[in-house]
Design brief:
The protein is an alpha+beta fold and 667 residues long. The chain has 6 domains: 60 residues, Helix hairpin bin (Helix Hairpins, Orthogonal Bundle), CATH 1.10.287.610; 245 residues, DNA ligase/mRNA capping enzyme (D-amino Acid Aminotransferase, Chain A, domain 1), CATH 3.30.470.30; 96 residues, Nucleic acid-binding proteins (OB fold (Dihydrolipoamide Acetyltransferase, E2P), Beta Barrel); 71 residues, 5' to 3' exonuclease, C-terminal subdomain (DNA polymerase, domain 1); 78 residues, 5' to 3' exonuclease, C-terminal subdomain (DNA polymerase, domain 1, Orthogonal Bundle); 75 residues, Rossmann fold (3-Layer(aba) Sandwich). It is built from 24 helices and 25 strands. The strands form 7 sheets. Strands 12, 13, 14, 16, 17, 19 and 20 form a 7-stranded antiparallel beta sheet that branches. Helix 16 packs across helix 17. The protein is globular and about 85 Å long. The two termini are 29 Å apart. About 1% of the residues have low confidence.
Length: 667
């Protein structure tokens, strides 16, 4: 196979796996395998730039724009009429019936029932995407509906947007770019930690992200899309109904909105009510239901007003807002020293849950709202996940809030950082809230994963002056643990065993556990892939760090500063002297001796658990699918092997015993 053909094959594989992961939510390969394919393609394209094409997966992140170009839309993006209740929906439907053929003139039991398509109204940012010969060539914001901004490079970073379709068609599609709820929460937490302004809701976060001049910033935040409309330039390709259009777009590789076709307005109203009941369980914001006449010929017959299509309407859910008493403003101190205000409320039912706390984000927000203790507070949760105080009214109880000048935990004078809105407690070594937060983070599941070392035990350890920083955990004795409340002999021994067990850990987990500002689990993985051990990372320059894909300049400086702080170095050296062993399982390309080979395990192994055996194989570059196929290279058979062994024998696949497996990996 020549180089160009190999590049084409790799692109096709990567596009398919991306589609399964980001569109179908059905990943078929491990992340490391996808990453290996991507790196291989990147390497080949670097060596042969003449074969790079705009639709290559490597071209998702382009260069920085100075500004976005204004581009007219091929077809105007209209707004939608809104309905806030059943009566308004019914009146819209009456107008639809009146303006289409075969209508008797009034609603009755015998009036025709026009098929209507119903779909969730995603609370995001509308965009238009153009494809030529199946290749994504341009993406525009909605703008004013007539002219939009060209944000093609940013949209390419959204992996749910295919760069190349499964068929070479010419079309324009429209969709709603959104930020998943979990990603929104994660982004806001990071904004708070770094002293930057938080986003009010996922829609604002998505809109702010997709219009970044640097596509790398867009790529670093988790955006997705639902496609809700399509216009095929070749009219022979165009389906007859909206629901069939969405189905066809799905088969072309798009992540499409889920459409339910109903008969008449009563069924549409029932769909709206059922959606309102379950919308809070979704992983994205939805503020209503869009109802459309399903038949495109009837849409054309109905046409548009100067502002909206006559054949569609948006049913808007009532806003999730409620008044309650703001009883207190509490001040919390995070592990990085960030001081944030939180409103303590009279408990109230909001959006299906009881709310007693609401975010005030920062002290600038308190000034803007003129918050006082004792106010009536309007709390909102519509399309927002964290309850937020949006307005206050004064009462006889209202008392001005006194802004803190000192840390509520240790009494240190609070500091401001230029360019940031947060206040900070500078007492990293003496503030118990910061110490507790850092230890809690250090022992968490994605870090050192020390089982049994929970918040209450950590609080006691810090309060009793047994622990000041993470190396102190490894100095704890059985007798000290028995001094803690609710710790019996067996619990003390189990906890000591768990702490000692964590001494042998993986390098990326330890890097994450350090709690370096701006560095999370994904960044820790990237660092472990690029530095063979903690000493190599410690010696890295800002230039070394910022040259790594996925490590920006701010993060590079934060890492450099961390490893050039003497207190941090003292902690690191102390931990290593206490016996911490940091294994880096990320091997260099030349060490991936089993790369490309597929192993299936069946039965019970004597010396390894299945997870352990799979981890060994993966570290050597092998695939470890759960089922046997003609693509399987080896089956490792332990005791009581079942149908997988039989299938492998029928297919003539090589069978390895546990001893042969050990011999293979030792080589």
């Amino acid at each position: 196979m020549d180089i160009q053909e190999k590049i084409k094959k790799l692109r096709k594989e990567i596009e398919y796996y991306s589609y399964l992961y980001y569109v179908e939510d059905n990943p078929k390969v491990e992340d490391y395998e996808y990453d290996a394919l991507f790196r291989e393609l990147q390497k080949l394209e670097d060596e042969h730039p003449e074969f790079i094409t705009p639709d290559s997966p490597t071209q998702r992140v382009g260069g920085i724009s100075e500004k976005f170009e204004q581009v007219p839309h091929k077809n105007r993006l209209y707004s939608l009429d809104n309905a806030n209740n059943d009566e308004e929906l019914t009146k819209w439907y009456e107008r639809v019936l009146k303006d289409t053929t075969n209508f008797e003139g009034q609603m009755s039991l015998f009036a025709p029932k026009i098929p209507l398509s119903c779909e969730y109204k995603i609370d995001g940012l509308a965009v238009s995407l153009t494809y030529k010969n199946g290749v994504f060539v341009q993406g525009l914001t909605r703008g004013d509906g007539i002219v939009g901004e060209d944000i093609t490079n940013n949209l390419k970073t959204i992996k749910a947007i295919p760069l190349k379709l499964f068929e070479p068609v010419d079309l324009e599609v429209r969709g709603e770019v959104y930020m998943p709820i979990k990603s929104f929460e994660k982004l806001n937490a990071k904004q708070i930690e770094t002293g930057q302004k938080t986003f009010a809701n996922p829609r604002n976060a998505a809109a702010g992200t997709v219009r970044q001049l640097d596509p790398k910033i867009t790529a670093s935040r988790d955006l997705s899309i639902f496609i809700y409309w399509g216009n095929f330039f070749n009219k022979e390709d165009a389906p007859k109904t909206h629901s069939e259009t969405i189905e066809k777009l799905s088969k072309l590789g798009f992540r499409t909105s889920k459409v339910k076709v109903v008969s008449g307005i009563d069924e549409a109203i029932d769909f709206c009510k059922k959606t309102d009941e379950i919308r809070h369980t979704l992983d994205y914001g939805t503020d209503g239901v869009v109802i459309k006449v399903d038949e495109i010929s009837k849409q054309n017959e109905l046409g548009f007003t100067s502002r909206v299509p006559k054949w569609a309407i948006a049913f808007k859910f009532p806003p999730e807002e409620v008044w309650t008493e703001l009883k207190k403003v509490e001040i919390s101190v995070g592990r990085t020293g960030t001081v944030t205000p939180v409103a303590r409320l009279e408990p109230v039912n909001l959006a299906g849950s009881v709310v007693s706390r609401a975010s005030l984000y920062n002290f600038d927000e308190i000034k803007r709202l003129n918050v006082q203790v004792g106010d009536r507070a309007l709390v909102k949760k519509a399309a927002e996940i964290i309850p937020k105080v949006i307005r206050v009214e004064k009462t006889e109880k209202s008392v001005p809030f006194e802004f803190p000048k000192t840390c509520p935990v240790c009494g240190s004078t609070l500091e401001e950082v230029p360019g940031e809105v947060a206040l900070y407690c500078p007492n990293k070594k003496g503030c118990s809230a910061q110490i507790k937060g850092r230890i809690e983070y250090f022992v968490s599941k994605n870090a050192m994963d020390i089982d049994g070392l929970g918040e209450s035990i950590i609080s006691q350890l810090v309060d009793k002056k047994m622990v000041y920083s993470y190396p102190d955990l490894y100095k704890l004795t059985y007798e000290q643990l028995l001094e803690l409340d609710l710790i019996a002999e067996k619990s003390a021994q189990n906890l000591l065993d768990a702490i000692n067990l964590s001494k042998n850990t993986k390098l990326p987990k330890f890097i994450n556990a350090l709690g370096i500002r701006l560095v999370g689990k994904e960044s820790a993985d990237i660092l472990a892939q690029n530095f063979k051990d903690i000493n190599a990372l410690k010696e890295a320059s800002i230039e070394d760090l910022s040259s790594i894909d996925g490590i920006g300049e701010k993060m590079a400086k934060s890492i450099y500063d961390y490893f050039h702080n003497q207190d941090n170095l003292n902690d690191l050296n102390a931990a290593l002297k206490l016996g911490l062993v940091l294994e880096n399982t990320y091997k260099r390309e030349e060490d991936l001796k089993l790369k490309g080979l597929s192993f299936v395990l069946t039965g019970t192994l004597e010396k390894f658990s299945r997870d352990e055996a799979q981890e060994i194989l993966k570290s050597l570059g092998a695939k470890t699918p759960n089922s046997v196929s003609k693509n399987t290279n080896y089956v490792i058979a332990g005791e009581n092997a079942g149908s997988k062994l039989t299938k492998a024998q029928n297919l003539g696949i090589k069978i390895l015993t546990e001893e042969e497996f050990i011999e293979l990996i030792n080589k």
